[in-house]
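Protein Record: Sequence and Backbone Structure Tokens
======================================================

Structure line: whole-number tokens from a learned vocabulary of local backbone shapes, matched to residues.

Purpose: to set a sequence beside its fold so the mapping can be learned.

___
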Amino acid sequence: MDRKSATSTMASNDPNPLDPPGTPQPGDLIEIFRPAYQHWALYLGDGYIINLTPVDESQAAAISSVKSVFSRKAVVRMQLLKEVVGDDSYRVNNKYDDDHTPLPVDDIIQRSQDLIGQEVSYDLLGSNCEHFVTLLRYGEGVSEQATRAIGAISLVTAAASAFSVLGLINTRSRNRPF
């Protein structure tokens, strides 16, 4: 390969910060960066995504609501990607493809369309928006975000238990008369 070819090949592989964050293809996972968390959606095509939104909010308010992470129920909605993203940023992120085989795109789209408008259970740690879209893409719900949250909760619980035990030991040792 001559120098010119090598340079143009390298340049074409480098992402341009002015380019959109990947051109989504039907069945792709879309990670949307909200101020306090990441929201996940699945790209259907023609600018539309499928995602979970809170049951008790209008469609417009549900798009960027932090309340969505504390809901117990969600509605499956088909919405325009650009409306859901709003002023936030997003990227195509099929990060589990190395460990999980995506289902055929036609199956992903059909499964997604069958769920539009349905109310589903929502749980931040066990059944969140990332679990939902990975279940559609791979047939298995996966959420690195939930795994990290569970790890953080476990760490805080362990630390609180340790401080509690240490406090109990310290209190008992001060109450002994020797």
The CA atoms of residues 37 and 177 lie 53 Å apart. Helices lie at 3-13, 59-62, 81-85, 105-115, 129-138, 144-174. The beta strands are 29-33, 38-45, 48-54, 73-80, 89-92, 119-121.
